[in-house]
Amino acid sequence: MAEGESDRALAERLKANDAAAWGEASNRYGERLVGAGLKLLKDPREAVIKAHEAIARAWEIRERIDVEAPILAWLLTIQRNLILHYLRARAIRDRVDQPPLGLSEESEEDPGRSVARVEAEKAGDPEQTTSRGEEREIVQERMAALRPEQREAVMAQLEGLTLQDIADEMGVNRERVKTLLRTGLKALRNPCRTPTIRTCRP
Asked: According to DSSP H, which parts of 98-162 are helical?
């Protein structure tokens, strides 16, 4: 058989949920998936994990297989979305784990002297600048209090991604993204919905 015919035959078996076919697909395309993942992740271990996750995700959505299209291209697309989703979630966790806005390593020794206050002193308007710093801290607290899915969807929208882009990266449908954005933004606007905020309007 020609390679194209072999690829199509394998695609048909995958779509029919032939267990042996999925093992063959893993053997045939696994190395390419790991190589592509390594370029984005720069971590061999994570690249191997994401390659396995891509095969598992492909199995979950096997009914979408287009037997006329190359299997590898389909798997690479799935893996890319998984990796982007992983990297975005990791970036959000890193942001949440950072010290509150307005504090630096130097200011941790003297909590009363925040970066916001230092900048205010330089600008000659301490009240206004400190107020902005406090507002940023409040926003960061509310972001940290969101559920992980909500936080990821909101951050993705702030970075300019479309609903479809967010849905693809998170592995959910557009309606789920809309719900996450609606509830997440509502929680950010309403202090009573974020447990880390100490005060709220009656």
From this structure: 115-123, 126-145, 148-158
| Helix 148-158 / helix 126-145 crossing angle, nearest 10 deg | 130
Residue 178 makes CB contacts below 8 A (sequence gap 6+) with: 163
Could you give phi then psi for residue 88, rounded to 5 degrees?
Answer: -65, -45
Beta carbons within 8 Å of 72's beta carbon, 6+ residues apart: 29, 32
Rounded Cα distance between 68 and 76, Å, is 16
- Give the rounded distance of the alpha carbon of 61 from its chain centre: 20
Note the pLDDT tens digit of each residue in 79-99. 998 898 888 777 766 665 554
> Per residue in 178-196, pLDDT tens?
999 998 888 877 755 444 3
